[in-house]
Amino acid sequence: MNIGRHAAIGVALLAGGFLVTACGATANTASSSSAAPGGGASAGASATPSAPETGNPGSAVTLNEDGSSLIYPFLEKLVDPLHAAYPNITLAPAPGGSGKGISDAAANTVQMGGSDAYLSSGQMSQYPNLLNIPIAISAQAINYNLPGVSLPSGQTGLKLTGDVIAQIYEGTITKWNASQIAALNPGVTLPSTTIVPIRRVDASGDTFIFTSFLSATNSQWKSQVSFGTTVTWPHVGTEQTGNGNPDMVNRCHATPGCIAYIGVSVEQSALSDGLGEVELGNAAGNFVLPTQSNISSAVSAGAGSIPANLAKPLIYEPGADSYPIINFEYIMVQKNQSSADVALAIRTFLMWAQSASGGSQSQYLGAVDFVALPSTVLPPIQRVIAEITG
What is the spatial distance between Cα 42 and Cα 37, in angstroms, rounded to a whole number? Predict the structure, then answer.
């Protein structure tokens, strides 16, 4: 995934007058949260009468986060600039899988949990005080290791559809020269190499969005397997498992014949290791790569609105250029925090992360092939952020 192909695409972020002041926060011990509506804002403040109260807490706060290995590289990029903008806020992210992010946030063992999956209706009932708050939009690539395959001019990867990939993970298609794959790739001489499907072993948001895609494109998968952070996988004798996105890359690199689903935040590593990147069939019948342009096309088609509970899939959106596996990246957080300063720090981080002058700058999003939230979904997201108190 070269820099030119994945050049950052700016998405305007205009949210009810909210603007983060990147260098306005000070390191003094007095709280620099925003003033009450109608009053002047103190240094580092960024709230307006219609926005959640934000600012530099009066005491040092470390925001411990764990969860999604897809969102983790993005959060790593935000650690230093967040601390520069708000010296009393330290972001401490860690990977571990979306399932861990959800469960740890629900158990209050971390202040925030990262997840590629939104909360199900059952989880919302089980954890009524747990919020799922989008901070960016990402995507998932399908990679393979098939040495020696020559592609026609203009084709950069093997072409596959969700229906064919589902059959691979069901064990119905077992060879790379199967007729179903050959039909999608005319002019390509495919070897008889055995396919090795690699899947996540941990409770994974990547598995959630991958199986959501398979459910949207293969009726048998939808009825027999469905989707989730964990599913009962069909038995395939050659399958392997990986724990986290980096491990999926390593295992596929070490396994000729493999196919794997890998979050775009580590896709550069997959391509650097020589893995092929699938041109994936979309809802319009075209074959597309997970470029920021194609991801943004899908965002335009499907991410223009969001329900009040902020839980929304973005799989298989319409559009000639829309990449079919995209998703909101979520931060899971409790409404009620241990102190007012912790609540302030969380609100400030979430508002800063979605701001075009904060965490949604192209230098951070583009580095992991994410795109910014569209401006149309920011008001409902900010209404939920305002519910976080301490």
Answer: 12
Which amino acid appears at position 12 of this protein? A
Give the Å distances, CA to CA, from 233 to 16, 169, 227, 237, 278: 45, 8, 10, 12, 22
Query: For the packed helices 340-353 and 72-85, what is the interaxial angle rounded to 10 degrees?
Result: 110
Locate 114 and state its tokens.
Answer: 């990262």
| Kind plus residue range of the DSSP H or E element containing 91 | strand 89-95
Could you read off the pLDDT of 15-65 as tens digits, one per residue?
Answer: 333 333 333 333 333 333 433 222 223 333 334 436 899 999 999 999 999
Instruction: Determine whether 209 is exposed, middle or buried from the number of CB atoms within 10 Å of its CB (0-12, 13-18, 19+).
Output: buried
Q: To the nearest 5 percent, what fractions of the chain are helix, strand and coil?
A: 30, 20, 50
Task: Say if CB 117 and CB 332 are below 8 A apart.
Answer: no
Cα separation, 158 vs 387, in Å, equals 46
Question: Residue 187 and residue 151: Cα distance in Å, rounded?
Answer: 8
**CA 144 to CA 274: how far, in whole Å?**
9
Domains of the chain: 32-138+331-385 (3.40.190.10), 140-305 (3.40.190.10)
- Express each pLDDT in 133-171 by its tens digit: 999 999 999 999 999 898 999 899 999 999 999 999 999
Question: What secondary structure letter does DSSP report for 45?
Answer: -
> Are the C-beta atoms of 335 and 129 separated by less than 8 Å?
yes
Residues 6+ apart with CB under 8 A from 71: 114, 115, 116, 136, 138, 265, 329
Least confident of 4-8, 9-13, 238-242, 370-374: 9-13
Q: How many CB atoms lie within 10 A of CB 199?
A: 21
